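Sorry to interrupt, but I need a hand with the structure work. Please put the record directly below this note.
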Amino acid sequence: MAGQRLKGQESEVLIIVNGVPQTTITAISSFSIEAKLDILSEGYLGETTERKDSIYSGISGKLTMHPDSQDIFKLQAAIIDKARRRTPGIKINIKTTLNFPNGQRPRVLIQDVEFGAIPFDLNSRKDYAKVDLSFEASEYVVMY
């Protein structure tokens, strides 16, 4: 019989701006990351199959949160200032800690993240406000 598996309740996501955790941005409803790889194929005369190779193209991901403070607008301002290069040195990192049932706690650190559009949605009286962030970065580090 297989042991218990990782669930979202054992995960936490932290957004860090210039080394300072933005701890009030905590209501994360979904988080995904994807290592981006491209496969190259090339066929040569006299060979019966194509040769394969791959290229690493960084990491991308999505983050959906239900803001519980005005800090979401501070984060948005930092993202915009970084894109405009108004405030030199802004660096935004994302860290997630995964608490596996067997006691292992790897941390994934995505450094110097770049963001796409930042929609802020209020859909109805019954729904929480929602912010979806899509992001990309060159590298990520897993600390075991």
Q: What stands out?
A: The chain has one domain: 8-143.
